[in-house]
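Example record

The entry below shows one chain as it appears in the dataset: sequence first, then structure tokens.
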Amino acid sequence: WRDRIDHIWTYYKEIILIGAVVIILLASIVGNALKPRLEVRMSGYLANITLSEDGSAYLKEDYLSHLGGSADSQTVILNSTVFGGEGYLTSMEANYNAALAPVLQVTAQEVDYMLLDEVALEFYMNKAFFMDLRQLLNEEELKQLELTYYQPVDIDEKPVGGSYPVAVDITGTAFAQGCAKDAKKVYFVAVANGPNKDDIRNLWEYL
């Protein structure tokens, strides 16, 4: 038997190894397919914002608990990208892929809100995917906030209609002061087509 095994290994080693790899891959694919998918209760994106461990937990595990969710069947997602800083405007091409990542997920309706610095806010402003905050907050609430407005324009860059508030400066909040590192400014925006946009008000009050 040993000679026979040695013979098979000598002449069919590559086939055996390839077969083993295929079996492992198939087992992995089947396992992932059978694994129950978690319900996403909220999905955020950080752009040029770095959070402490406590800050990250506050927006993920702690927020899921705040919602009364179960980690066994639900989750809160928080992705991040970094592409800006000094010299950003002159190194646009080098940073483009990192800057584009959130846009692709927003287009796929996978992002509910973003926390951004000034550079990221400027970059994404012309993408026109931010929610009009008048849908989220009442007039009295808006008056108390430092807001950034979006002005729609046509193909010739001429203003179309009126401007509306899309971003809130939350730099001075306890959350930003205690959890956000390095950023001079921290802005909150809600995504207009977010999958959980009905719960954005809850998130805003949580922040």
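Notes for this example: The chain has a mean pLDDT of 84. The two ends are 69 Å apart (CA to CA).
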